[in-house]
């Protein structure tokens, strides 16, 4: 009922909402295009300024390469000349000449003892390309300032003679970017070829020297400029225009990001005012629908939900008691009938479970009686004539009875692997030391894996007694296990028995071995029927160690 009343109110407001929504979409699309265009323009301007700075220093290095003192590597005159050049240009840290062995020849400042530059990336690039190179963000070994290295080959004909090196001071470049200024929420970022940020406005102290996140590294060497929307490292959603590195004209990556919240703030305010106006007009229409809806919709739903919660809490007698022709009343009545059926099924399942437990106990009792009867017959038959063999037979019969008792009762407790295996084998060998070799660490198995392992060992021993090595006087079985990262690896190896061949069909024992363990144990097994004896491998999980 309330839904119908709400639908009438919504139908009246729908045209107004649709018109406002259309205007909202159109305004946002238009504003988005404007911001993208502005971001692209800002990125072009920043990239152009960086290119002018790099091109200017390129020209400077060309001029330095033409100086006679530099060309002839006249150390004394070269030092004075380069010092004069460096002092007159504030945006560079130092300028010096490096020999092909990486050792400095002359420069604008004194060199620390033993300093070399052959490991620098720009030096290696010069050796390979013999062309002007812009390096990556680094700390100068001469001035200890962070710089962006620039290198120029000093050629004599076609032969590389030395390398002229300078570097843009990062503090100077950061000041240039900061002086440009950015609007609140916007950002300009400059990075080198490895993605290290060399200048950033705002918050340079937080970002300069860090690396652009991996998910955006591909933008640095993209094929062409573009505009994307992303969430910056400072948590601001921005529309970012970027200019990838395109050597030789654009040696640095430049991006300009416009804060989306700031750019869309006027539209957001207009949207808020329109929304408030619609809400105010709709409140009166919806109040009646809500009031009536509470009576005919929410109260029945709460009643049904309350009954469900009571059922979860164990109050299986709880019912909604709902009747009538209303839709929710019909649902409530149907729900009550469903609960009645579930309660009846639960009662029947309990009765069946009780019967099953009684039958299992009866079966266990009868099996015990059967073993007791066999033992009594054996005692009467040959206990006096051959007491030693009778005692051995009685011990094995008792062990077999214990194993079957464990299987039928499905009761178990945490036990070491050695104890579980030994208990399962007692029914099959008169003297374990003669035919069985156990080797493995002390690994304690939980109850839900101790019983399945006992079943598997019992089945293997039964088969070995009937067809394999335990049926022969000289036959032996080696059982080895190890524990690694929460998993147990067990190996059963038979030898000294009759020749073994792979069975032609699968019996119940094979199915039991494959399915004995619970699913959470992730058990896997493999049987290798070698002529000299069966080799069985078993792997199962007992949890992380």
Automatic annotation (TrEMBL):
Residues in HAMP domain copies: 295-347
Keyword Membrane: yes
Catalysis: reaction(s): ATP + protein L-histidine = ADP + protein N-phospho-L-histidine
Keyword annotations: ATP-binding, Cell membrane, Coiled coil, Kinase, Membrane, Nucleotide-binding, Phosphoprotein, Transferase, Transmembrane, Transmembrane helix
EC number(s) from the headed UniProt entry: 2.7.13.3
Top EC class of this enzyme: transferase
First-listed, main subcellular location of the protein, grouped into a coarse class: membrane
InterPro entries: dCache_1, HAMP_dom, HATPase_C_sf, Sig_transdc_His_kinase_HWE
GO biological process: signal transduction
SMART domains linked to this entry: HAMP, HWE_HK
Extent of the signal sequence: none
UniProt topology in membrane: Multi-pass membrane protein
Subcellular location: Cell membrane
Molecular function (Gene Ontology), one example: ATP binding
Gene Ontology CC: plasma membrane
Gene3D superfamilies in the cross-refs: 6.10.340.10, Histidine kinase-like ATPase, C-terminal domain, PAS domain
Sections of the chain in a coiled coil: 335-362
Official protein name in the record: histidine kinase
Family matches, as CDD domains: PDC1_DGC_like, PDC2_DGC_like
Membrane-spanning parts: 276-302
């Amino acid at each position: 009922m309330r839904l119908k009343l709400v639908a009438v109110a919504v139908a009246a407001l729908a045209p107004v909402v649709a018109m406002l929504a259309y205007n909202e979409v159109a305004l946002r699309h238009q504003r988005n295009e404007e911001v993208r265009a502005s971001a692209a323009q800002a990125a072009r301007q920043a990239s152009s300024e960086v290119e002018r700075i790099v091109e200017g220093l390129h020209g400077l290095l060309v001029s330095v390469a033409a100086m006679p003192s530099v060309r002839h590597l006249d150390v004394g005159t070269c030092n004075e000349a380069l010092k004069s050049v460096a002092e007159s240009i504030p945006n560079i840290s130092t300028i010096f000449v490096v020999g092909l062995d990486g050792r400095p020849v002359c420069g604008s400042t004194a060199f620390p003892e033993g300093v070399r530059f052959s490991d620098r990336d720009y030096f290696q690039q010069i050796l390979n390309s013999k062309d002007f190179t812009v390096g990556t963000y680094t700390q100068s070994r001469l001035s200890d300032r962070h710089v962006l290295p620039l290198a120029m080959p000093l050629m004599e004909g076609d032969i590389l003679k030395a390398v002229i090196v300078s570097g843009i001071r990062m503090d100077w470049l950061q000041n240039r970017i900061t002086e440009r200024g950015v609007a609140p929420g916007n950002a300009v970022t400059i990075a080198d070829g490895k993605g290290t940020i060399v200048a950033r406005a705002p918050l340079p102290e937080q970002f300069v020297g860090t690396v652009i996140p991996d998910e955006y590294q591909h933008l640095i060497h993209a094929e062409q400029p573009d505009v994307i929307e992303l969430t910056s490292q400072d948590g601001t959603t921005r529309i970012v225009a970027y200019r990838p590195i395109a050597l030789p004209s654009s040696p640095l990556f430049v991006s300009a990001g416009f804060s989306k919240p700031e750019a869309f703030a006027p539209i957001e305010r207009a949207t808020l005012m329109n929304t408030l106006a619609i809400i105010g007009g709709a409140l009166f229409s919806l109040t009646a629908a809500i009031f009536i809806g509470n009576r005919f919709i929410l109260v029945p739903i709460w009643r049904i939900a309350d009954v469900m919660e009571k059922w979860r809490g164990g109050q299986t007698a709880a019912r909604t008691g709902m009747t009538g022709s209303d839709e929710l009343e019909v649902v409530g009545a149907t729900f009550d009938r469903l609960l009645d059926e579930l309660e009846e099924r639960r009662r029947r399942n309990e009765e069946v479970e009780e019967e099953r437990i009684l039958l299992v106990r009866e079966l266990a009792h009868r099996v015990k009686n059967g073993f007791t009867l066999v033992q009594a017959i054996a005692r009467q038959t040959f206990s006096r004539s051959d007491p030693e063999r009778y005692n051995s037979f009685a011990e094995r019969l008792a062990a077999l009875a214990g194993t079957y008792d464990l299987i039928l009762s499905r009761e178990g407790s945490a036990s070491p692997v050695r104890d579980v295996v030994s208990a399962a084998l007692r029914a099959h060998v008169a003297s374990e030391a003669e035919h069985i070799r156990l080797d493995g660490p002390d690994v304690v198995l939980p109850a839900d894996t101790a019983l399945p392992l006992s079943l598997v060992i019992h089945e293997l021993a039964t088969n070995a007694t009937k067809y394999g090595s335990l049926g022969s006087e000289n036959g032996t079985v080696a059982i080895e296990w190890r524990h690694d990262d929460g998993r147990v690896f067990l190996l059963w190896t038979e030898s000294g028995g009759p020749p073994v061949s792979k069975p032609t069909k699968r019996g119940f024992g094979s199915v039991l071995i494959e399915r004995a363990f619970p699913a959470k144990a992730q058990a896997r097994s493999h049987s290798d029927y070698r002529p000299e004896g069966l080799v069985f491998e078993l792997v199962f999980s007992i949890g992380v160690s």
